[in-house]
Amino acid sequence: MIIYLKNTFNDVGKVSLFATRFFKEVFKPPYEFKEFVKQCYVIGYKSLPLVAITGFIMGLVLTLQSRPTLAKFGAESWLPGMVALSLIREIAPVITALICAGKVSSGIGAELGSMKVTEQIDAMEVAAINPFKYLVVTRILATTLMIPILVIFADAIGMLGGYIGVNMHSEINLTRYTSQVFESLAFLDIVPATIKTFFFGFFIGMIGCYKGFTAANGTESVGLAANSAVVTASLTIFIIDMLAVQITDLFF
Amino acid sequence: MNKESGFQWKLGMFVIIGLVLFVSTIYFVGKQKNLFGSTFNLKSNFKSVSGLEIGNNVRFAGINIGTVSDIQLKTDSSVVVVFVIKDEVRKFIKTDATASIGSDGLMGDKVLTISPGIASTKIVEDNDLIASKIPIDMEDVMGSVKKSVDNAGIITAQLAQFTYNMNNGNGTLSKLMTDKEMAGSIKKSLLNLETTSNEFASFTNKMNNGDGALSKLVTDKKMGKMVDSTMKNIEETTKGFTEITEAAKHNFLLRGYFKKKEKAEDKKQEELDSKEEAELKKAMKMAEDSAAAVKK
């Protein structure tokens, strides 16, 4: 028991150190701009089809699922507003973050893990390239900035899915649907949800990097790093989401 | 280098589309809340805002033209509501416009409605105070609904009583509704009435166009004149006759007869008087007797 607690504290301490090291290095030149752009492309653009399909399906399914309940109250006209609110406030950020945890975090974990195992990271240090700056900082920055944009795409495509979902049973034109969506939205719905996604992005990147960077020597540890990166990132996303919603609830 | 620029423009497009979507969302939501574009403020005092909140819509002629931006308590019975309105509708709002609070549907949000005035032609200024109307509370509506429901209950109860009486009662109206004999007799009398009126019609026809004495009497002018002259003649004759009688009274041959007649009349009168007296006495006596009996 004590050993387990000690291990947990040990892990948390290591992650904290890793995070402080990231914040120290991120403002210090030289900046690895080219690598950052490349990581943005890999993380952002390459994840777009996956996120788009998920967002579309979420919007469509949410509309179809909430319809019977609202129809009971004769409030079908509130469907667009309700779908928009639940998509933008909660569903699109969390689902996108989970998808990215699966795709990006595990990718980073496996990539850095294998680099660590094959001693490429050590070789970088020998070549006078700061591996932390080149590998970790660029990736964490890329996820932090790309996840919010992916969430915005998921929101937009989810709304389109909602539009199709509404039109399956009744008719509404796109202008009216859009105006209904915007009528139901306030800044309080958009801003906290957007801020939340930056934290999702940061933790997805950081957990992936930490797991890969601290992988033990040995081939099986690569798989382990990828696996535990996904699990830990997903769990962290839910915990951050809970905290974010509670803080929003507290202040507004 | 070529390959590198290949992914760079894709990334740029991805980021720019994402940012445009975000910014346009912010813009449209802000537009809804009148954060962009020129606006002006109006104020109004209310006794109670009945649940109006900051951000509720302001309507003019049914169109959303702005939002409520501030609600503040001024005294214990007065609330100041400040609302932001688009500048382009300012020319339609005159100084005698009134603000009232209503609700958007039965369960919906509260809305602040501005109703146009009649007399004024002066356009409102920024930060003007406009008059307010007391909002209709849902409770008041429910109260009046309850009253009418109660009344409806009384009316239906009485209607039920009335219908019962109609079906089972013995009054004229219920007989009229239910009794078959009555219907038969009414039908009969109506038939009789019809024949009577037919007869009467033929009678009047005859009266108007016939040659009988009666119809002549009614219609012939000549006959009328003749009757008139006859009547005059009769009158003259009777006058003459009275004169003759008077003359006869003074004639000595006939005086005796007239005197006798006078005497007989006097006698008759006396007899009648004495009879009446006797009857009166009898009645008096009976009254005294009954009074004595009561005393005893």
From TrEMBL, chain A:
GO cellular component labels: ATP-binding cassette (ABC) transporter complex
Coiled coil segments of this chain: none
InterPro entries, A to Z: ABC_MlaE_roteobac (IPR003453), Permease_MalE (IPR030802)
Domain of life where this protein originates: Bacteria
UniProt-annotated location(s): Membrane
Record field: transmembrane: 43-64, 140-166, 186-210, 222-247
Bilayer topology term: Multi-pass membrane protein
Xref: Pfam families: MlaE
Main location (coarse class): membrane
GO molecular function: phospholipid transporter activity
Keywords from the named record: Membrane, Transmembrane, Transmembrane helix, Transport
Similarity comment: Belongs to the MlaE permease family.
Identification of the protein by name: Phospholipid/cholesterol/gamma-HCH transport system permease protein
TrEMBL record, chain B:
Domain of life: Bacteria
Biased composition (Basic and acidic residues): 264-288
Keyword Transmembrane helix recorded: yes
UniProt keyword Metal-binding, yes or no: no
Disordered, as annotated region: 264-296
Start and end residues of each Mce/MlaD domain: 43-117
UniProt keywords, alphabetically: Membrane, Transmembrane, Transmembrane helix
Transmembrane segments annotated in the record for this chain: 12-30
Pfam families: MlaD
Name by which UniProt lists this protein: Phospholipid/cholesterol/gamma-HCH transport system substrate-binding protein
Lineage, opening ranks: Bacteria, Pseudomonadati, Bacteroidota, Flavobacteriia, Flavobacteriales
